[in-house]
Prior knowledge:
- α6 packs parallel to α8 and α9 runs parallel beside α10.
- This protein is α/β, with parallel strands linked by helices.
- The chain folds into two domains: 59 residues, DNA polymerase, domain 1 (Orthogonal Bundle), CATH 1.10.150.530; 297 residues, TIM Barrel, CATH 3.20.20.70.
- The strands form three sheets. It has a ten-stranded mixed β-sheet with strand order 3-4-5-6-9-10-11-12-13-14, covered by helices on one side.
Amino acid sequence: MNKQKTDLKNLTLPALEQFLQGQGKERFRALQVFKWLYQQDAHGFEEMTNISKALRKELDETAFISNLEPEAVEQGSDGTRKYLFPLADGTSVESVLIPIEGRNTLCISSQVGCAMACEFCLTGSFKLTRNLTTAEIVNQIMAVRRDLIRNPPALTLDIPVTGDDEEDDDQPESPAAIRNIVLMGMGEPLHNLDNVIPAIQIMIDGNGLQLSNRRVTVSTCGLVPEMGRLGREIPNVNLAVSLNATTDELRDRIMPVNRSYPLRELLKACKEFPLPGRRKVTFEYVMLGGVNDTLDDAKRLLKLISDIPNKVNLIPFNEHEGCGFKAPTRAAIDAFHKYLIDRHVTVITRDSRGGDISAACGQLKGKLEKKSVA
Length: 374
């Protein structure tokens, strides 16, 4: 691809207006092009039939429209789909589609690899290669939408993942619709805010991907200054915080970010995050067998989050090769869940999804890389 050309999917609508105005074009042309990109999924300028041939030719000389197509798709017996997307530089990222009660949640990536080095995370073992561009983030959504249109899901389960399910309406949706976006795939989204923020702006733009801001959730391991920036620039998205430990001693060990932003600072930032209305911070808690899954941990967790509007996602650890952590026992999961429920905490114990495919972050990528080396 000619490096001098601009990938239009890196541009929000205001940025696209500036780009075209810089070429002497009327502002309304940007809206026409933007709708073609995101509502018509145009792959080329020749498809934009309400735009003059002269402008299409000019655009072809100065810009291009990027797209992603999956290199591999695995579908589990529970309806979960795992996508591996090759990128232009030879790297790759993953996305996971999770059908729930007839509504599709898509988990997307924000980086190739990750710099956070959480001990239990497979993606962290790849280390950080680079940030994804805005276009590469939104193109994951568009590629999965395309796949859903071609191959509508046949199976859904009734186990929530994240988001404000209490605010759900009962309007029927197309099986190809993606209702919820969660930035919980490969990478730390807040480590790439320069690209994540424009991507979210495209997602929630009424002329773009047309997603409700209350259906977009951004996850973080605890980058406190970046939480403040996210709240200032896009205050209406949902926040999910990967907590995973209830003491600084343990969190320092399994999540190095805690050495820079310990629990006191992280929880203060959660309390100050500008969530509207009845929305809550989602605390993700990966349960590691024999490490953080006791009733003492549950008691400390309750104390830590009690003054923050909260809900808790308990995530039993998904064992993977090369990691010394173990999954918790069913008894430990149930006891932890019951302790919180009995104290009126909204708790979801997330079932392991896609267990018969490579559904955990990094598993499909790692599997295919092993095959190519063998």
